Amino acid sequence: MWLSFVLVFLIGFAAHRASLCTVRAVMQWMEQRKSSLLVSFFYASLWASLATGLFA
Question: Cα–Cα distances in Å, from 42 out to 2, 24, 28, 38?
Fold first, then answer.
């Protein structure tokens, strides 16, 4: 039971951080016309999806 709470907290924390990263990446793309953060976010999403698919 405690492990479930810890995992839920960690997943929630990661989701919260990812949304801030996404907002910052889109702002950089819109204001500075640089897409380096946005591309790295997509690469991280791809790796997370692949890892999830392998372990699921």
Answer: 32, 13, 15, 6
Give residue 6's identity as a one-letter amino acid code.
V
Contacts of 25 (CB under 8 A, 6+ apart): 35, 37, 38, 40, 41
* pLDDT in the model for residue 3: 92
CA pair distance 44, 9, nearest whole angstrom:
20
Q: Is the pLDDT of residue 56 over 90?
A: no
Q: Is the pLDDT of residue 32 over 90?
A: yes
Instruction: Give the other-Cβ count within 10 Å of 38's Cβ.
Output: 18
Domain coverage including residue 41: 2-55
Counting the structural domains of the chain, the total is 1
pTM for this prediction:
0.53
